[in-house]
Amino acid sequence: MGRLRKKRMHVNDKSIKKKHRTRRRIKDLDQITEDMEPENAAKMSNQPRDQDLPGEGQHYCLHCARYFINEDALKKHFKSKLHKRRLTALREPVYTQKEAEMAAGMGHYVLPPPPLDVGMKQPGMGISPGSMGTSLEKRVERKDKKENDINDLIQVSKQLKTMTM
């Protein structure tokens, strides 16, 4: 006879699977959009000190629903790709029950609401996550500047040609 199996003892244990699946569950987008409403945002940004939370609950990213240990970590997070992805996901309107009914053929067509402005300044922070200059804007500015410089050079060269003639 062989030895007893010591691994895979909880293969069909549903409660253990559920614990692992929901261990580090983050808020859904609809919950975050509710938190972003002005009255809820003020509550979330001015939380009382809590010893159990990172940074005593004083450094909170409203868009990602995460606590950070200090302000430097929060500012670094604002520049991260994860935060920027979350901002783009929050710009889309929230999926509602009306949309689900319309998809099932039980509702009337209604125009979608305009996209949300998620680039708001977080209270108490010196930077605005949505107001950081995009690389596209910078490229357009550089291109315009180059075109202006080229036009200036062409005008100067025309003036020189007329002077030499």
TrEMBL record:
The keyword Zinc applies. One of its GO terms (cellular component) is nucleus. Residues 59-88 form the C2H2-type domain. Keywords: Cytoplasm, Metal-binding, Nucleus, Ribosome biogenesis, Zinc, Zinc-finger. It comes from the Eukaryota. Residues 16-26 have a biased composition (Basic residues). GO terms for biological process: ribosome biogenesis. It is found in: Cytoplasm; Nucleus. GO terms for molecular function: nucleic acid binding; ribonucleoprotein complex binding; zinc ion binding. Residues 1-52 are annotated as: Disordered. SMART domains: ZnF_U1 (SM00451). Belongs to the ZNF593/BUD20 C2H2-type zinc-finger protein family. This is C2H2-type domain-containing protein. It comes from Amphimedon queenslandica. The gene is 100633141.
